[in-house]
Amino acid sequence: MMWDIDSAWARPEFVRPVLETYISEGGHIFQGNVTSVERLIEAQKDPDSHRDLMVRVGGYSARFCTLSRETQDEIIGRHKYAG
């Protein structure tokens, strides 16, 4: 499972029950990003100031600023349920 969690939601009382349920239902691999939408958008606008920002992209990690605009927009779109 790959999950993008807005940093505002990355609290134990939210994440723990979800992960416990995932594991109890037989989940084996969990990949997560915890980055705010605002930081991702800032990185698009000013990539030189965000060269260290790493994200998960369909089974591999990459520096956000090296990805195509289309892929960056897709990653930002994953956060549509941000708190």
Layout of SSEs?
Elements: E1 2-5, H1 12-24, E2 31-34, H2 37-45, E3 54-57, E4 60-63, H3 69-77
Parallel strand pairs: 1-2
Antiparallel strand pairs: 3-4
What do you see in this structure?
The protein is built from three helices and four strands; from the N terminus they run E-H-E-H-E-E-H. Strand 3 (54-57) and strand 4 (60-63) form a beta hairpin. It has helices spanning 12-24, 37-45, 69-77; strands at residues 2-5, 31-34, 54-57, 60-63. With 83 residues, it is an alpha+beta fold. The chain has one domain (2-77). Helices cover 37% and strands 19% of the residues. It is elongated. The two termini are 21 Å apart. The strands form two sheets. A two-stranded parallel sheet has the order 1-2. A two-stranded antiparallel ribbon has the order 3-4. The mean pLDDT is 85.
Summarize this structure as a short list of keywords or feature phrases.
single chain; 83 residues; two-stranded parallel ribbon; 19% strand
Counting DSSP H or I runs of 4 or more residues, the number of helices is 3
Rg calc: 14 Å
Which spans of ≥5 residues are poorly predicted at pLDDT below 50? none
Q: Given the C-alpha coordinates, what overall shape results?
A: elongated
What does the average pLDDT come to? 85
What structural category characterises the helix and strand content?
alpha+beta
Question: What's the count of strands?
Answer: 4
* Spatial order of the strands forming the largest sheet: 1-2
The largest sheet, given as strand count, sense and whether it forms a barrel, is: 2 strands, parallel
Report, as a whole number of angstroms, the end-to-end distance.
21 Å
Number of domains: 1
Helix content: 25-40%
Quote the beta fraction: 15-25%
Order of helices and strands: EHEHEEH
